[in-house]
Amino acid sequence: MDRIYCPSPVFELSVTLVAELCELRLALADEVIDESAHHAVLMTVIAAAAAERDRPRSILDFGTGDGRSIPAIRDRFGAASIIGCDMSRPSLRAAYDHEAVLVQIAPHGPLPFADRSFDLVLSVFVFHFAVPAAVLRELARVISTSGRLVCTVYGGAVARHRMAMTLIGYRQTSSTPVPDAVGHWVDVWSPPPRAATAT
Asked: How far apart are CA 132 and CA 78, in angstroms?
């Protein structure tokens, strides 16, 4: 998002403005997406995820956008069930991978998935935005007891993101800087105990 000028830090944007920004990014993808940085970040996410869950049965790509990460996720994890979700209908319509299962979600939840449906939740270029607490709780609900949430965060959003996750009850199990994308981190979180997400 650094290639689109935004007068406010992106973690201060409303959900409506985040959707507009993501749709602008989609429309200008060829000019604004740094494919080498995207690849470096995605490969770091996949490596961190594989270190935690080498053979997940089910994966959610949260904030999938046009699904451009799904082919690489499928290549690494094979036959796992992979679902991509996003709040942007135009992004989902522009899906990279026409075989992917893509689901539109509401900006503030709830998520349309059963409890503990996913062994792994991956999220690339989403958590630098302010993800509502209700959605963080919903993600905790849909992650299996031994599952993990692996996400990227960067810049001024890192401390805010980690504080928000900790307040919900997530426990950070690792954090890795992305070698070829300065300021980007890949964080791995275990979900809060089930009772903590019910409030």
From this structure: 31
Could you write out the three-class secondary structure of 85-150? Answer: EECCHHHHHCCCCCCCEEEECCCCCCCCCCCCCEEEEEECCCCCCCCCHHHHHHHHHHEEEEEEEE
| CA distances in angstroms from 123 to 8, 65, 82, 198, listed in the order given | 22, 10, 13, 23
Question: What is the Cα–Cα distance from 72 to 122, expressed in whole angstroms?
Answer: 12
Please check whether residue 4 lies inside any domain of the structure. Answer: no
Does residue 5 lie in a domain region? no
**pLDDT tens string 14-50:** 676 666 666 666 655 565 556 788 889 999 999 999 9
Work out the average pLDDT over 108-133: 93
79: containing domain:
10-198
Domain harbouring 64, CATH code:
3.40.50.150
Give me the torsion for CA of 176, 38, 119, 167, rounded to 10°.
Answer: 60
